[in-house]
Amino acid sequence: MNKENTALKETPNDHPIIDNIKDRWSPRVFADMPVSQTDLQSMFEAGRWAASSNNFQPWNIVWGIKGSETYDRIMNHLVEFNQSWATNAPVLMLGVINTKTPDGKENYHALHDLGQFTANMAIQAHSMGIAIHQMAGVNFESAKEDFGFPEEYHVATAITAGYYGGNDNDLNDDLQKEESALRKRKKQDEFLFNGDFIERESL
After folding, report:
1. Which of 103, 117, 154, 186 is the most buried (most CB within 10 A)?
2. Per-residue pLDDT, 179
3. Distance between CA 147 and CA 139 in Å, rounded?
4. What are the domain boundaries of the chain?
């Protein structure tokens, strides 16, 4: 039985939030339609205006559209598990940080800032009907060498992008189950502390 992926998944939020956050999720299948460079530039512009410690903006994005050499080069650095489904995506990216500040000190906030960039980009993308899915499964060192980044840079994540849609049958059985699983998050009282940290057992 074919099952089409849809943009909306039920999100059991406990408090009101805007739809672009509530409805955003990270699929592994995408509609069979390209993402234009114009749309990508709108997504990148949203990321460009993310908050950044000392305005250092340590993020760097390598991107490629399916069918291009850059897309294939990024794909080559994904771990096998991610390659198995990321081929559904019309766009692949690498999120790269400069781990040094302009005066050569360690930038301990660079990963946080890249996260801000990607979150901005994801919300902008969702407003356009485009989903992104971030991946930790990337061969960091080989990607860094292939794309010519200096020693102080770190390839932190890979990212897929594409319009919501597609067919879950393009995935293996285990991933089909994950795609249809209910969304869940920790409750606020598991990570909020109005005072001292209290270790809590995970549910």
Report:
1. 117
2. 80
3. 12
4. 47-161
**In the CATH hierarchy, which fold is given to the domain comprising 47-161?**
NADH Oxidase (3.40.109)
**Is 50 exceeded by the pLDDT of residue 2?**
no
Q: How far apart are CA 98 and CA 106, in angstroms?
A: 9
Inter-axis angle of helices 37-48 and 110-127, to 10 degrees? 140
Phi, psi of 32 (to 5 degrees): -85, 70
| CB-based burial label for 14 (10 Å; 0-12, 13-18, 19+) | exposed
Token reading at 23: 């409805």
Which residue is associated with the tokens 């390598």?
Answer: 62
Other beta carbons within 10 angstroms of residue 50's beta carbon come to: 17
Reported pTM: 0.91
What whole-number distance in Å separates Cα of residue 25 and Cα of residue 134?
11
Instruction: Check the CA dihedral 140-141-146-150 and report its sign.
Output: positive
